[in-house]
Amino acid sequence: MAQTATLYRFRIDLSDVDRNLYQILEFRAAMHPSESVPFFTTRILAYALNYQEGLEFSAGISAPDEPAIRVMGLTGGVDLWIDIGNPAPKRMHKASKSAKKVRIYTHKNVQLLAKEFREEKVFRLEDIGLFSLDQRFLNALGVTLNRDNHWELTHNEGELYVGVGKETFQCHLEQYRMED
């Protein structure tokens, strides 16, 4: 019998000083059985760090041609395409041709990923936002996951602070440039 996704509820008190955005986010996110905890926590953080009107999770693994997170435009195109992990260069080539903005949040080897994209000549490579999160930070944050989660997330000058109960986790959100 196949395993089913686990549904998590989140309340994130977001203080994104870098974007001057202060918001309480309340949403549900399904974690597929094949999804690792670092991948899932990266996906949740990417959602919060890019929060705007119309932001949504895609259908996930059942929709492999869609981004993990997106904002649809008024004309039906994708305004913002966000992928998680280590997406294939061909996938990002297609994404950068079809979406106005493309961002990748990874917990993998970011230099190797950037090198692959340069070698494959990904379209509009210099416009793709590539962000890296530390695996230890994600693992520590993942240990706190419950079915109901309340995070206090602060983003200031590239630093992330996530308060969960009495614990606080810190990580630098590293942005990489992928110009040739």
Would you kindly provide a written description of the structure presented here, covering whatever features stand out?
The structure is a single chain. β1 (6-16) and β2 form a beta hairpin. With 180 residues, this protein is an alpha/beta fold. The mean pLDDT is 93. It is globular. The strands form 2 sheets. It has a 6-stranded mixed β-sheet with strand order 3-4-5-6-7-11. It has a 5-stranded mixed β-sheet with strand order 2-1-8-9-10, with helices on one face. It has one domain (6-176): Restriction endonuclease-like alpha-beta roll fold, CATH 3.10.640.10. The chain has helices spanning 37-49, 89-98, 110-119, 135-143; strands at 6-16, 21-31, 55-57, 69-72, 78-84, 99-106, 129-132, 148-156, 159-164, 167-172, 174-176.
